[in-house]
Amino acid sequence: MSVNEILQRAKKASVGCAVASERVRDHALTEMAYALREQADLVLQANEQDMDAAREAGTPDPLLDRLLLDEERIEGIASALEDLRDLPDPLGVVQMAETLDSGVAMQRISVPMGVVAMVYEARPNVTADAAGICVKTGNACVLRGGSLAHRSNLAIAQVLHDAACAAGMPKDCILAVDTTDRAATDEILKARGLVDLLIPRGGAGLIQHCVEHATVPVIETGVGNCHEYVHAPADIAMATEIAVNAKCQRPGVCNAIETLLVDESLAEEALASILPALHENGVVYFHTDPMASKIASDLGIPAVVSTEEDWAREYLDLEIAVRCVKGIDEAIAHVNKYGTMHSECIVTENEADAERFLSEVDAAAVYWNASTRFTDGGQFGLGAEIGISTQKLHARGPFALEALCSYKYVLRGTGQVRG
Amino acid sequence: MSVNEILQRAKKASVGCAVASERVRDHALTEMAYALREQADLVLQANEQDMDAAREAGTPDPLLDRLLLDEERIEGIASALEDLRDLPDPLGVVQMAETLDSGVAMQRISVPMGVVAMVYEARPNVTADAAGICVKTGNACVLRGGSLAHRSNLAIAQVLHDAACAAGMPKDCILAVDTTDRAATDEILKARGLVDLLIPRGGAGLIQHCVEHATVPVIETGVGNCHEYVHAPADIAMATEIAVNAKCQRPGVCNAIETLLVDESLAEEALASILPALHENGVVYFHTDPMASKIASDLGIPAVVSTEEDWAREYLDLEIAVRCVKGIDEAIAHVNKYGTMHSECIVTENEADAERFLSEVDAAAVYWNASTRFTDGGQFGLGAEIGISTQKLHARGPFALEALCSYKYVLRGTGQVRG
Question: What CATH code is assigned to B226-374?
Answer without folding.
Answer: 3.40.309.10
